[in-house]
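Deliverable D4.2, example record:
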Amino acid sequence: MHVPLLDLKAQLHPLRDEILAALTEVLDSTRYIMGPRLEELEEAVAAYAGARHGIGVASGTDALLVALMALGVGRDDLVLTTPYTFFATMGGVLRLGARPVFVDIDPVTYNIDPQRLAETMAAYAKAGKRFKAMIPVHLYGQCADMGAVLALAEQYGVPVVEDAAQAIGAVYPAQVSGVRQWRPAGSMGVAGCFSFFPSKNLGGLGDSGMVVTSDTELARRMRQLRMHGMEPKYHHSMVGGNFRMDPLQAAPLLVKLPHLPAWHQARRRNAARYNSLFAAAGLVGGDRITLPAAVYEELARRERAEPDFHIYNQYVIRTRERDGLKAFLDQAGVGNEIYYPIPLHQQECIAEFGYGALAFPEAERAARETLALPVYPELTEEMQQYVVDRVRAYFS
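Output generated by the structure prediction step:
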């Protein structure tokens, strides 16, 4: 059996005619830059993410970049983030001449560690250094510990930009005026950044992304920045870039967005099935594999809620036998992927800054031990059983 890591054809098939009709409508309109389809998507995604404004941009990378630009991040500014994420999180910081300050991850969620974050912020404050922004990452589809992150941000006066590229629709149990509310990823900081790269839970037909915010002035600045800093036409009060999303990307995303909750539910179902199958096979614990942890699952169950506490953009296991297991699965026709085998602080392009001499042991261990398995909504029970059987065969 061949089990791909992701099968976009299975998702496309039932939506193909509707997507073609939406694309044809844009084609026939000849409105290929900005226009009503983009505005409709911006409103829909902002509403879905619990924010007042959506700003469509050309990629998730541009979403992060334009959010930082709108906050005035510039040369030699310090920006807090995690070393265990996709390069774009750090890339936007570096492109603005700012310096990333890394905080190690929690080994259970792979998200930024709140205790280490508190220690880092206290140490920099003691040294008289201020942070211009903070970028927590909601990795693999599960929110970072935003209660702790936002409390520290408020204490030190640091704006929070959520990197929610893998987490559109994921929720966090936030306390608001003493009452718990399940807040969507992207709605808790001053801005939330999404990617619509084709492999994402909500994927387009190429690169595109969006920033959401409830800050009207910040939204105005980001809209201006994505159009070369132009407002009105040919008048430039700031230097921006060409960060616009094309309506030809917005059209299929509008078709897909209503299906996103059902796709999340299917991914959670597949993750739960994996958990049961791996446990029944005796593969969990010891020197075999560790399963991904949905840390808010029990809370949601107790509250009889069905929120997307984890949307499983990836289903990531970890094992000390990662490289051997990967090679075995490759030969067995099981799609898999190593996400982030080189942490950001060890990347060659920033070697001159000396970050590689720093130690972030949990990020480095995750880079050595984690492996993503297929979890897309159309995955069948038979395919999942085959994946588990192949993992069991390796450890046998």
